[in-house]
TrEMBL record:
CDD domains: PKCI_related
Pfam families: HIT
Domain (HIT) ranges: 5-113
This protein's name: Histidine triad nucleotide-binding protein
Length: 113
């Protein structure tokens, strides 16, 4: 989508500190990190949120979650553990309407809602 911030990062119209990139996925550092490691992992395909995915997107989203686990290994937080967060729509606190997985780690994290 042309006016989507994360699509613009995918298309290199906005710079980002990339951690991983392949044909289908992109990972980059969150601009306002909430933990020592805070990476956003997205599919390059514009899907607005988890609530907006179609049944046909299920393999892609499954691969997205596997990619998150591999990136956690890559950046060295897998052994100690980490948190994965998906914010969905208004009550979920979603600000950017392009599905993204927050990968958080590097210290013990608490779960606040
Ligand atoms: P949400 O609240 O939508 O789940 O999270 C969006 C995340 O994107 C926030 O943690 C925010 O800090 C991050 N973010 C917003 N704009 C940018 C940007 O231009 N670049 C990067 N790298 N992260 C961003
Ligand atoms: Zn998008």
């Amino acid at each position: 989508m042309t006016d989507c911030l994360f699509c613009k990062i995918v298309n290199n119209q906005i710079p980002a500190e990339k951690t991983f990139e392949d044909k289908n996925f992109l990972a980059f550092k969150d601009i306002h990190p909430k933990a020592p490691t805070h990476i956003l992992v997205i599919p390059k395909k514009h899907i607005t949120s988890l609530a907006d995915m179609h049944p046909g997107d299920a393999p892609l989203i499954g691969q997205l979650m596997h990619r998150v686990a591999l990136i956690a290994e890559q950046v060295g937080i897998a052994e100690k553990g980490y948190k994965v967060v998906l914010n969905i729509r208004e009550h979920g606190g979603q600000v950017i309407p392009h599905i993204h997985v927050h990968l958080l780690g590097g210290k013990a994290l608490h779960w606040e809602v």
